[in-house]
């Protein structure tokens, strides 16, 4: 239990993109997110109000030969001499940073804490980037064999298809929906429907696609790790996100509409995928969800909308089952039936998800809470979920070695 | 060589070079584990002994990896799988003896046996179908 209630009082993020930030490094990206975060505070805030920084960069040693990045970002944001600490949990890094920020405030140590994440990924070629992100897997027992992150989710997908008599076609409902949601999100990497992308490619290459499926099944959508094709995978993006946390006592000084953290669930699972008896679920996600629901004193049915970790399309299906939104084997069918659309039965990945919003690894967790912040304050424009009161984020490290679920309310 | 007393990553790979698939057995609860560990995943006791796996099992799942890391770029596409060994535990390996251009011929549930392949400087675990 938390000794003191903690609120979000500000949120900022860069657009996630593969070329827009070509000339920026981690420091410029994070400062951009930080400045927007400061601006988002309704009654204004200044540097001297901020007591500590917990920041994530997952693989900056590979991408920019830069460690000691917490100090660097504290320096570049002008927050020196506050304590600055880096938190790393692969793709779940910045939601772990947010959690630590909450603990730091709940303990009574600090009143205002800045948390966030940044990843500058496009410095490397695809094969080098693939290798860099494989450092989040079990090196001797997975990596050496050539197992990549898409490879792990591809193996989960094939196990899922076998168990539930499902197929790759089911996965396309996830990418189609998430591209649609991202088309309404000015921060998203892709801001277009899959069909619009297909039309653009067809014009350029003189090809013709009758519909989305025709495009998705074509060689223009190549295999990354069978059965997963390019459009089943989150893109490689640069980006940063930042969230300001405050004790509930102090929060009102900065805003009349804070967003409260009400549930935290954080678990570790087996590092290797092969150490799980059932490959169609991520046990750490199930447990993290249960812990967060228990702390928030709610059930999965009470969640109005959720950002779930769709690094690859099967991951969204598995997440919606692990979090109890849909029964086992029915997550994909629910998506096909439109039950996970914005203002469907359960609005999933209203921001476009990792799939279409982008996935600069360490920026993802707090970018999920950025969307929750927007939704709960009624600022999500065309993506707005009606009467959004309770939002959830679900952030997974690699294949499920880490799972974090956080619940927020108005 | 003294490595057999140490349930380490190095020992696992030293055994692989000898074409032996070694894990551990918990002397307290009989739990079998591969790769070797230092603490039993079931009862959490640190009372283990080496256990040799036969290397036979069934394919639990697989993927054909097309976009590979730098060191394996020339080998792609290659097949990876998780195998449920007859003794119980699951382990990841490269799948050989089937071609990646015919994914329909790779079946979940098909019986496979361990093989040991040499790749650059190390021996890696592979499985091939039992025909």
How would you explain this protein's 3D organization?
- The complex is a heterodimer of chains A (410) and B (131).
- The mean pLDDT of chain A is 97.
- Chain A has helices at residues 26-39, 60-64, 69-77, 93-106, 126-133, 149-164, 168-182, 194-205, 212-216, 248-254, 283-296, 313-322, 331-336, 353-357, 364-376; strands at 6-13, 52-56, 84-86, 112-119, 223-226, 228-229, 239-247, 259-268, 305-307, 347-348, 390-397, 402-409.
- Chain A has a domain at 6-125 and 236-254: Peroxisomal Thiolase, Chain A, domain 1, CATH 3.40.47.
- Chain A has 410 residues and is of the alpha/beta class.
- In chain B, the strands form two sheets. Chain B has a five-stranded mixed barrel.
- Chain B is built from one helix and eight strands.
- Chain B is mostly beta strands and 131 residues long.
- Chain B has two domains: 2-52, no CATH class; 56-129, OB fold (Dihydrolipoamide Acetyltransferase, E2P).
- The interface between A and B is large, with 36 and 37 residues.
Which structural class matches the secondary elements of chain A?
Answer: alpha/beta
Mean pLDDT of chain B: 94
| Secondary structural class of chain B | mainly beta
* Helix percentage of chain A: 25-40%
User: Any idea what the shape of chain B is?
Assistant: globular
The SSE order of chain B reads: HEEEEEEEE
First-to-last CA distance of chain A: 19 Å
CATH topology (level 3) name of the largest domain in chain B: OB fold (Dihydrolipoamide Acetyltransferase, E2P)
Helix content of chain B: under 10%
For this structure, the CATH topology of the domain at 6-125 and 236-254 in chain A is: Peroxisomal Thiolase, Chain A, domain 1
Terminal-residue CA separation of chain B: 37 Å
Output the number of helix runs of chain B. 1
- Overall shape of chain A: it is globular
Strand tally of chain A is 12
Mean pLDDT figure of chain A: 97
Strand content of chain B: 35-45%
């Amino acid at each position: 239990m938390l000794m003191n209630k903690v609120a979000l009082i500000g949120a900022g993020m860069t657009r996630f993109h593969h070329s827009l930030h070509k000339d920026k490094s981690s420091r410029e990206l994070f400062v951009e997110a930080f400045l927007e975060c400061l601006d988002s505070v309704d009654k204004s805030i200044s540097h001297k109000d901020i007591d500590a920084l917990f920041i994530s960069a997952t693989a900056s040693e590979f991408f920019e030969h830069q460690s000691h990045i917490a100090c660097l970002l504290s320096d570049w944001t002008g927050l020196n001499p506050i304590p600055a600490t880096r938190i790393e949990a692969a793709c779940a890094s910045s939601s772990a940073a947010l959690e630590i920020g909450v603990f730091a405030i709940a303990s009574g140590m600090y009143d205002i804490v800045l948390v966030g994440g940044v990843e500058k990924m496009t410095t490397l070629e695809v094969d080098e980037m693939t290798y860099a992100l494989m450092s989040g897997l079990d090196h001797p027992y997975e990596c050496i064999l050539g197992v990549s992150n898409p490879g792990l989710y591809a193996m989960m997908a094939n196990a899922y298809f076998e168990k539930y008599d499902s197929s790759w076609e089911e996965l396309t409902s996830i990418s189609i929906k998430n591209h649609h949601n991202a088309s309404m999100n000015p921060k998203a990497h892709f801001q277009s429907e899959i069909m619009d992308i297909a039309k653009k490619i067809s014009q350029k290459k003189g090809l013709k696609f009758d519909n989305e499926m025709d495009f998705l099944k074509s060689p223009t959508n190549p295999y990354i790790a069978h059965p997963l094709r390019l459009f089943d995978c989150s893109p490689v993006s640069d980006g940063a996100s930042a969230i300001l946390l405050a004790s509930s006592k102090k929060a009102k000084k900065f805003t009349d509409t804070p967003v409260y953290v009400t549930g935290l669930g954080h678990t570790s699972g087996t590092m290797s995928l092969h150490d799980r008896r059932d490959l169609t679920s991520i046990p750490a996600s199930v447990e993290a969800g249960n812990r967060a629901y228990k702390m928030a004193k709610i059930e999965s049915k009470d969640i109005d909308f959720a950002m779930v970790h769709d690094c690859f399309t099967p991951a969204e299906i598995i997440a919606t089952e692990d979090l109890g939104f849909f029964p086992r084997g029915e997550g994909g069918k629910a998506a096909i039936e439109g039950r996970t659309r914005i203002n469907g039965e359960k609005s999933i990945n209203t921001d476009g998800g990792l799939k279409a919003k982008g996935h600069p690894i360490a920026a993802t967790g707090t970018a999920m809470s950025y969307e929750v912040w927007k939704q709960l304050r009624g600022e999500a424009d065309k993506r707005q979920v009606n009467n959004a009161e309770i939002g959830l984020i679900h952030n997974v490290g690699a294949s499920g070695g880490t799972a974090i679920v956080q619940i927020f309310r108005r | 060589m003294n490595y057999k007393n140490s349930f380490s990553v190095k020992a696992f790979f030293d055994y692989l070079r000898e074409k032996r698939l070694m894990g551990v057995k918990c002397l307290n609860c009989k739990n079998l584990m591969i790769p070797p560990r230092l603490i039993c995943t079931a009862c959490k006791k640190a009372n283990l002994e080496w256990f040799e796996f036969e290397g036979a099992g069934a394919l639990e799942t697989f993927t054909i990896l097309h976009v590979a890391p730098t060191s394996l770029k020339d080998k792609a596409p290659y097949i990876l799988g998780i195998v449920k060994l007859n003794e119980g535990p699951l382990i990841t390996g490269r799948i050989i003896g089937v071609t990646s251009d015919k994914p329909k011929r790779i079946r979940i549930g098909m019986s496979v046996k361990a093989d040991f392949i040499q790749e650059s400087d190390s021996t890696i675990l592979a499985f091939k179908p039992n025909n």
